Amino acid sequence: MKKIHLLSFVIFLACSSFAQNIRERLKERGQQQDEVKKDDAVPPPPNYTELYYWAAHPDKWDYSDSIPSFLTNETRDTSADVFFLHPTTYTSDFQNSNMNADVNDSVLNHHTDITTILYQASVFNGNCRVFAPRYRQAHLKAYFQMNSEQSQAAFDLAYEDLKTAFQYYLDHWNHGRPIIIAAHSQGAMHAVRLLKDFFYGKPLQKQLVCAYVVGWQIKKDDFKKLRFGNSPDETGCVVGWRTYKKGNEDFLVKKENGNSLCVNPISWKTDSNWTPKEMEKGAVGRDFNKLISDKISVSVAPGINILWVEIPDDLEQRSGIASRFGNFHIADYNLFWMDIRENVRQRIEAYLKHE
Q: Which phi and psi angles does 339 have, rounded to 5°?
């Protein structure tokens, strides 16, 4: 296993901040959205017949294959497939960058791999083959003008890549196997569209084990034909959460007026009961090979429907998620790494039992 340098993860924490939270901070400082430079250059599309254009794929070694040292003796299998949509890692040079990333940018690809593929996609490798396509993700600046024609075109281009990749996966590698859709942030935004296009009331819905749509608002009417999960072994459902320190919310969440869905990723229920600290199974922070065994308690915030976390201040610092705004978006997966890993196993077992 390759040693993961601390600096790489620190860069990850600095660069992959929640776009909505950044918008709030920019608004507070009085900066204007017209600082975003218009650039219509469109990078070439990925060729999903080539493994190079997959950040994770079972036919090559990649960072999703990484196993932390504390799980060396874990029993693993590949009973299902996970299709993982990574979050925004294209964040540099706001003024001069194109609106969409170039999938041939080796520096950006490496950054994506040593952050999101390692720390997020790897959580599924205990029971899944992992597929994660590279795509022409929209630059972070696209979130500053969400409703502009330019930003919508950038998001649409990113989604078309993911849609093409998923269709290629279905045509060449799925062969009727159980499917998990997993995503974070920008990837989760696209996952909502992907689920509607491929699963929503369609035959493929029978192959859906679960969709982990994390770090993005799931509106109450997003999935009328897909259930929102409310138990740890429910299948054919969608689950998701957005993580904040207890008592916090940002102005964008306030504007939602509670129009969102959220599950507790420890109990896997949607009620507002606080889970006992002893119930949490462990987190992964800066050091991928070290399980953070400090226990935390979480609850779905009543009326707001975001995830509130009760976490010691020293743990915030040691895990690298400290935020003076109380937004733990960058750790939506990391804080519940072992809980997610165990839940994936539970849901796959339940699916196979009733197949």
A: -65, -40
